[in-house]
Design goal:
alpha+beta; elongated; 297 residues; mitochondrion; mitochondrion outer membrane; Alpha-Beta Plaits; 3 domains; ARMC1; ARM-like; Leucine-rich Repeat Variant; Armadillo repeat-containing protein 1
Length: 297
């Protein structure tokens, strides 16, 4: 083996050792305190070896399962740009999906921290408030116009690792979802950053499709007291209400209007008998002509 090949092989062995360490949650904080490894993470995502990148991404998937660890990762200013570059350059579907997952988790926590800081600083920022009165805007308000936060809470008895992975993947695929972060303490919740037009009911449908029977939207009450209001939704109710509209029409092509799918025969202008009669003679035009004549003359 050449010197370069030997160096790559040694690097892979080292990274695999870190990966094995990270498989135990209690070791992840220790790994993040390793300054050499921590500072090398962005560089490893640009490595020439696909195996090095693959194991690095696997490590990041484990390190981003807890928000405390993500806050540590955010101390690296180079990590997010490296993740973005890696997403654009890597073609392996499995690795690319994990990269998107890691990036989504990190951005969700980053957005949450920035919003929290903005809320804490806002009462003190008199100069900025004056700027707002004059038509200026805070960065937080600028972000809020382009996206919003939706918090969904799961039933702890329904929640497990397999369902967590399934619902996280499903939510990331939902059009309009920007980022997803799932926390399990004290109760399982998904914190989503979405486009303003996306509704919580649409998110609930995705959750039900992933196998859950219950989900609740958590809305923080104004006033900053930390009080929350819970809006519960059930899969059984969704099938019999408007929230289940997308499910009920799921077997039909998306380009059909919902109104076409639920038609009262009594309200139809052309009845089944007229349609059959028209088919035997000269088609639709004759049927319509006959109907007009009998109606007005």
């Amino acid at each position: 083996m050449t010197e370069t090949a030997n160096a790559t092989a040694d690097k892979i062995k080292t990274i695999r050792a870190y990966y094995k360490l990270c498989q135990k949650p209690e070791n992840r904080g220790i790994v993040l305190k390793d300054k050499t490894f921590f500072n090398t993470l962005p560089t490893l995502l640009k490595d020439d070896s696909s195996d090095v990148i693959r194991y690095t991404v696997k490590i990041l998937v484990l390190l981003t399962e807890q928000s405390d660890n993500i806050e540590q990762l955010l101390k690296s200013t180079e990590l997010l740009p490296s993740l973005t570059d890696a997403c654009e350059n890597i073609t392996n579907p499995s690795v690319n999906y994990n990269l998107v997952l890691v990036s989504s988790r990190i951005r969700a926590v980053k957005n949450s921290l920035e919003a929290r800081r903005a809320e804490q600083n806002e009462p003190l920022a008199d100069a900025v408030k004056e700027l707002d009165k004059g038509g200026g805007t805070l960065h937080r308000k600028f972000v809020a116009r382009k996206s919003k936060q939706i918090i969904m809470e799961f039933d702890v008895d329904e929640f497990d690792e397999a369902k967590k992975r399934d619902v996280e993947r499903s939510l990331l695929k939902k059009k309009g979802v920007i980022s997803v972060y799932i926390t399990e303490s004290p109760v399982p919740r998904a914190v989503l950053r979405t486009i303003p037009s996306l509704e919580a009911k649409e998110i609930a449908l995705v959750v039900f499709a992933a196998g859950f029977e219950y989900v609740a939207q958590i809305v923080k009450m104004p006033g900053g007291g930390g009080e929350e209001e819970k809006f519960e939704m059930y899969a059984s109710e969704a099938q019999n209400s408007k929230i289940g509209g997308a499910v009920a029409s799921g077997d039909y092509p998306e380009y059909l209007d919902d109104d076409v799918l639920h038609v009262d025969p009594a309200s139809c202008v052309i009845t089944n008998e007229m349609a059959a009669h028209g088919a035997q003679e000269n088609g639709w035009f004759s049927s319509i002509t006959s109907f007009v004549k009998t109606s007005f003359w």
